[in-house]
Amino acid sequence: MGNKRSVNRLRRRLSLRFGVDSPVRLAFTEDVTAHGMFIKTTNLYPPGTRIAIELILPDEKRVLLTGMIRWSKKVPPQMIHLVRKAGIGVKILTFQSGEEDFRQFLEGAQAPRPQAVGQGVPAGDPA
Question: What is the pTM for the complete model shown?
Answer without folding.
Answer: 0.78
